[in-house]
Amino acid sequence: MARINFDLDVLRTFVTGIELGSFARAADRLGRSTSAVSAQLKKLEEQAGTPVLRREGRGMALTEAGETLLGYARRLLELNDEAAGALRGGSLEGRVRLGLQEDFGETLLPAVLARFARAHPKVRIEVRTARNQQLIEGVRNGELDLALAWETGERTPHMERIGAVAQCWIGALDAVPSLGAEPLPLVMLEAPCLLRSAATAALDRAGIAWRVAFTSAGLSGIWVAVGAGLGVGLRTPIGLPASVERLDAERAGLPMMAPLGLCLHRSEAEPEAVVERLRELLQEGVAELLESPAIR
């Protein structure tokens, strides 16, 4: 029986299309035409010897064989990318000091750090989770090499905007807040907090009375309080637990919120190779996160 040698480029198109929920978006992301992507998917099914996709409405869904292949494809691509990274910078040594919002601690950080550590085992990474202003000050003071922070209009000498995330009102599952005579109960992080300020300012502009019903020093307290029905909060879709859900702002009578920009700050114009490599991985990780169906 002839061996099957899957084409990694074809597997990357397959995985990207599934993760983005659309092969048209995958074509745009990978810089290919839709006809080229269709040809790759046809080639993949020929290599697999069985259908991996089936039509579902106007889109495509995985077959049972496709679900099996998807897991292996992700592992093959991750190993390929790690090998390429190791060859490009296997001798990297030193230290990188990274700062980021708590929001990314469970969704972005583990995957990025795992990839970096496997490819560059001699590099020591120091991670600090903090509020926005602390992260920016850390970069300015030379205490952090890189910082992933929300866009506030406050600039640092070497920063780049790498995306935007929706701001959404959140509440307990199947609970719609009542905007009656009582002030709207809010669940918020301790001040100063960018989203806390954005929420109260938007409610004030809309003429909606509010009160802070619960304050927490960290996100875990926010999830517990909102999930318990103590009030509503304003967050992004990143890292939302199953105990809370995004509210339909129009249905709930709450203000529509503009997306929140995301910036990557660095302390040096031309950072050391270890810092630059981590910056590349962070950008890749953020792009993948922001294009996932759960965040869009």
UniProtKB/TrEMBL annotation:
Residues 6-63 form the HTH lysR-type domain. One of its GO terms (molecular function) is DNA-binding transcription factor activity. The keyword Cell inner membrane does not apply. It comes from the Bacteria. InterPro entries: LTTR, LysR_HTH_N, LysR_subst-bd, WH-like_DNA-bd_sf, WH_DNA-bd_sf. Pfam families: HTH_1, LysR_substrate. Signal peptide: none annotated. Keywords: DNA-binding, Transcription, Transcription regulation. PROSITE patterns: HTH_LYSR. Belongs to the LysR transcriptional regulatory family. This is LysR family transcriptional regulator.
